[in-house]
Structure formats: C-alpha cells, structure tokens
Amino acid sequence: MQNLKIIGSFIIVSALALNGIVLAQTKHDLKPASEEFEENKAGLRQAWFDQLFKNGSAPDIELAHTQAVAEFQQMDRSAAFKQTSTAAWEPVGGSQDARVSGRPTGIAFDPNNANIIYLAEPEGGLWKTTNHGSSWASLSDSWTTSAMGAVAVDPLNSNVIYAGTGDVDAPDGLGGIGMYKSTDGGLNWKLIATTTDVGSRTLQILIDPKSPDGQGQNSLVIYHAGSNGITKSIDGGITWKRVLNHGGTTCLVMNANDTKTIIAGFNGGIRRSVDGGATWTTVGANLPSFGRVTLAIGTNDPTRVYGSLNTTSGISSALASSVDGGLTWTVANQSVNWLGQQGWYANAIAVNPVNANDVVVGGLDIYRSINGGQTFSQKTDWTGSRGPSEFTHADIHVLTYGKDALYTLSDGGVYHSPSNGNSWLQDMNRGLATLQFVGVDAASDMSFVAGGAQDNGVNKTNAAQTGFGQVLGGDGGSTYISQNDAGTTVYSTYVQAVMEKSNDGGTSWMIGPNGDHNIISNDTLLLENTPFYMNYSVCESDPDFVAIAGNSRVWYSSNGGGDFNSISRAGQISGGVQTVLVPAADPSVVYAASRNGTVYCTYEGGAWKKSSKALTGGVTAMVADPNNAARVYAAVGGYGNPHFYVSKDTGFTWTANAVNLPDLSALSIAVSPDGSTIYLGTVSGVLASNDQGFHWVPLTNGMPLVKVMSLQVRGSGKYLVAGTYGRGAYKLDVSNIDFTIQGVSPVAVQPTSDVSLGNLYPNPVTQSGSASISFSVAKEGPVRLAVYDELGREQRVLVNEYLPKGSYARTIQVTGLATGKYFYALTALGHTVSGSMVITR
Predict the structure, then answer these.
(1) What pTM does this model have?
(2) What is the H or E stretch that residue 68 is in?
C-alpha cells in the first residue's frame, strides 16, 4: 500500500460560551465543536439516521417497519423452542458510573405511592420501579416496538397506565405503533390506538383528572400530543378524534380548575382552547420569534402560565409569562441562556405545584426562579465541577414534579431533587441499562467491554462487567478492540472526523497532533464533512491497518493512524463513501460501499473495481470471511429491499440469497472465526445463519426488539457481543447453539443466574393428574409461566404477575389437554427458560 504522507495542521474552532454556559455536546476534553456544528447537529444526526434506516424502496417506512416486526415475531413463534440454545443474551455493564443511563422521554407517577414510577425510553421500552429507582423492571420486552414517547397514569385509578410509542425528540429515533393500555399496573397490555388514531410518535399524554373513571364507564378524557397533532378520546382510549391538526406540537398543558382549558405549544406558536379542543385561538402574537416552546401551568394557581422559548434571534432563551391563564403573554426574562444552542432538542420547564412563582427551566443545565422568572439562579452544572449534588447530565428534556420531588429527564437518564432543584440525586439510574450505544466491542479474552454511546462518550466495563465507567466524553461513536494483542489497542470515534486511540486497553488515550485526543492529522480529511458518526474498519489480523469512510474519499493508514492518506479520488466513489472494510485475511484489500449501494474494491491502493450492479438500499456494514478476503457479506438498511448480500469475487457480483429474512433494516453483521455462521443485527434484534445466508433463525432469548448497532464475535468464537441503541450491551454464548430450523428436538434452556426453573414432577404426567414446578427470580419484576403445545400455541397460564424476588412453586393442571409432548416456559427479567412435559393416558 502506498503511504503518501500528507502533512498539515487542523485549527480547531472553539465553541461559543453564552452567558458562561458551555455547550453540552462539546464536552470532549480539549476538542470543542464549532457554533456551526451545534446549529447543524440535528441535520447531521438526521443524515446519519437516514443513511442507516431510510435508504430503501418502501414508500412508508414506519408502516414497512411495523409489518416487518410482525413478520419477525411470527418467525419467532413458528420456531418456538426449536432453537437448542443453552444460553440467553446477558446484559453487560448496565449504567455508567452508577449515575448515568440513556435518554428517557417520559415519566409518570403513581398518585398513591411515591415509590412507584414509570419511565419511557426512546429506544429502550417502558420501565417500572416499585422502590423509587433502586431497581427497575422492563414492562415492554414482549412488545413489537422499543420506541417510547410518553407514559401516563390514570389519576383516578393508578392501576390504569397509558404508554405512547414513538420518539418525537430525536432525529435518529423510530416511529412507534400507537398507544398501549394496562389495567393491572403494567402487567398486561393492549394496543388501544394505532398510528392512524394518534400518529406514530408521542410527545405527551394528558388525562383529565375531572373526567369519570374510564373503568366501567369508559368516559375518561385523554389527550395525545405528537406527530399527529393533538388527538382526544372521551371513552378511555376506545375511539380518537384529532382536535388540532398541527404535526409540530411540542407540549400541552391543562388548567387544573377548568380542565376544558388547554394550551398547546408548537414550533413557532401557542394556541389556547377553552372548550376541550373543539376550537382554538392563537395567542402570544407579541412574543419574539421562536422555534420550539415548552409550557408549564400553575397547579394551585392556573392563571399563571409560563413558556420556555427557543428564540430565533439574539440570545436563544426567553421566558414567556401569562397571568390570565394563557390569554395574554409578556416576556419575563431574556437575560439568561439556559438553552444554549440546543433549544430545538432540549427544552424543559416546570412550576412548583404549591407556588406558582417558583419556576424551573432547563436546556443545557437547570435554572430556578422564585419570583416568577424575573431572576434566575443556576442549580446544576453538567461538568460536575460544583460537586455531585449539583450534577445532572446535560440536555434537559423534561422537568416535572412527582409526589415527593422535582424530577428531570436528560440525555443521561433520570434525576430527582427533594429540595425544589437546589440539590440533585443520581441514584435512580443505577439499575437502568438503557445507554444508546453506537458500537460495542470486547477484549479477546472477554476481560472488558467498551463502547461509544450517544452523548455519553466512550465507556468501559469494570473487571466484573457489572458497570460502565466513562473513559472519554462527548458523543461516543463505534469502538473497536484489537483481538491479537489481548485488547491493548482500542479505537473509537467522536463526532465527524475524530478518531481516538488507546494503547493500554482504554485506560489512557493518545494525545493527537493538535493537543486533543484526535489522532487524525490530515487537514483534508478533517474538513471533508464526514458523517455524524464516522464509519471505519480495523483489520482483525493487524490493528495497524485502518480505513475510514470520509465523505467523498476513502482514507487509509498502515501505521495505526499515524498517517491517513486518501486512496481514492474525490468523487470516485459515486454518491459518497458510506461503509469501508479491511479484511482480516488480507489488509492490502480495501472495500468501500457508496451511499447509492455500489461496492468498490482496491488492492494495494491501485485501481478501484466497481460492483457490476448496485445493491438495493444503503450498505450499513460489511464483513469478510476471516479466511478468504474475496468472500464478503453486506448488511443493508432501509425497507422494501433485501438486507443481506454475499459476494464471492471481491465484490464484483452480489447475490441476495436469503429465503426467510424479514424486511427489517439491517445495521450490523459478523461472522464466526471459521466462517460457518453469519450473524445479522437489525433494527429489531439479531438473526443467525449457518448456510451462508439462505436460512435464518432469530436469537431472541433475553433480548427485546431493539436496534442492534454492532455485532462482534469474540472469545475465540464463543461469544457474540452486541451493542444496542437503547438497551446497552449484551453478550451471548453461541458455542452450544444449533441453528438448524427443521427437525430439531426441543431441549430445556439452562437457568440463568437471575432466573431459575426447576424440574417438573412427575414427568410424564397422566391426563387425569397434575404436576408441580418450582422457579425462582433474583429480582422483582413481571413474571410469566405458561404451557405450550409442540407448535408453540399457548395452553395454560400458570403465572402472570409482578413478583418480588424469591422462590415459588406452581401446579400444572393438565385436565383437558390431549396426550403428547408440551413445553413450559418461564419469562422474567429479560430471559426465557423452558423445559419439556409429556402427557400420557
């Protein structure tokens, strides 16, 4: 490979500090981002998301996704208990430093019990705690979506929960499937509204506390704000009607004394209704021009209404105030910039329920006013320099009062303040494994796992792999750990053209030529406008060989990032470079996939050979057979197109040979060391094939339907390591899995450390008798134990309740069941363990 060293310098543009506020997304040591970058961040993240998910042929992405998930679920049921896996996916690492988790979107409180709280995660599902966050249990692992927007508890009946799916706030989030309802505290759920009823994304669910209880009378009044504007139900969610046709709705508040008075904020305006949404009046015409607005209304004095405005000129934050219930408005404060430059993304406000003059606002950090917004004092510092009691993670999305405290939701999870914002506690994040990883990897001996996460930097597990610790800040991208030097060499990325490297397993990180952690020194690459999360490839057999997908060109290093040189001309990769690959079998071969699906190959930096035909959809990841650089596999995103391709001739011709692969956007791909098994990570889980991609089986035991951004085979082929965007990191022991689809005899899954299922006695059991079964769970949460026939059809439900940790026994009554073979399965804590049962005469 030619090694033409291009020498240059890169001048880093410092970010602006408005009113002493440092931008949240620039917290990366000596590497601040420019103002232009912060202003364009939404567009950059959106472009990255579109490349991965939307570059297909389906006209309606969200409909196609819903149909594909249903297909995947059906595939799973048809193969129920026919996977002879003796292992389940195991979560790795959990939260970061026991005080940071992933970004939540909604929170709801049991009105009768301050310890019971529900939390919605944009890509991590719905969670519940019964001990004020000391531990959490996922309620939605059986749902067909993990994308959540909001959650609400019926104030008249705390057993009734409403959960709206689909994330409004993030440019890289998926739409949902509507709204779920539970009448038993989150144990069982029913989809009560589709996307046709309420839209595909939920921002807020508001329940009229003065409407009759929907249980029995079906007259509960509910408002849903989101991508479909504002929709309303007057019968507890049975039917819905759109009352405000404005897709840019950003919030909704209600007058506690006169619940027919509601006020809606949307991008660029405020509207008010005094008849429950039947008619609306535009208000606040005298306010300065603004984009996003978030509203809060006094509980004890609903004449006091406030708005946090992301203004479009001058200082970006303004506090709007109304003293007549939202009819007329004035600017109360425009001297403090709590939003920084990210009010389009992080914009929150709340009013103390017993004092309408006590107002808290948040964007980058949290500020409080005790005089109706005339003056503010800063109450949190995301840098942590003021001490832990004043720390909440940056990017404040929600501020709200619960039964016992003030709560905030940020890019780092959930925090609470029993002192009206004067001091903050981070302890509720410890049990939330909801980090949004862009890419995760593990050391060759599985001694540690590391990964880059959205707005949570690069994280590394401790020795016991029970927690992540942050080793680099900012927006963490994909992470790679070398397999031939005991994990000493580690690469990761920050946003755009920034590559980081560690030579001691991620403990310390190299200082680059510009005094920061960016090892890239080439001016041209740094200014090439690379994607938000830069794609790169490290050769498995020698980590000194690295390729980068810049934007218009491919960049290559043969000395571990000491020099990166262009090995393609600008524009030679038609449509721009999206994905690159350096095969383990031959680092002198480099593959590059363009954004239009064409794959290119070069040998020793010579001419590029182009594939004879473009792949349909965007190539999100490529991997080569570890022993044959000419055999290449590609994962393809989008919908309405194939998602797995194979080439046997260095990428010149490609075949989409899968016969049973669901139409799920594929995001990651890996292959076993002997090349016999291929793993495909999709937007809703992982599949595997042991016949070169013709037939696939789902690997769903222990992992919900979540975006799998990265897959790596580690531990000499024993473990599959997955990085998910919303449920943290996982590992799966694949050494004893039989991937055969037909003719496999079911066997019991071995107990996990958290869930244990005892032997059935007696077994066989006579038709007129019964059998007993014992089980145990190590943590509290929803537990389901059921009996199925050989086709996977449910026959008996023995347990379906929220149980504390402990050991239990149940009796299986088989009267009425035909003779033959059956299976019993226990699902709890994200795991499913099973066994077989025979019924005789």
Answers:
(1) 0.89
(2) helix 61-78
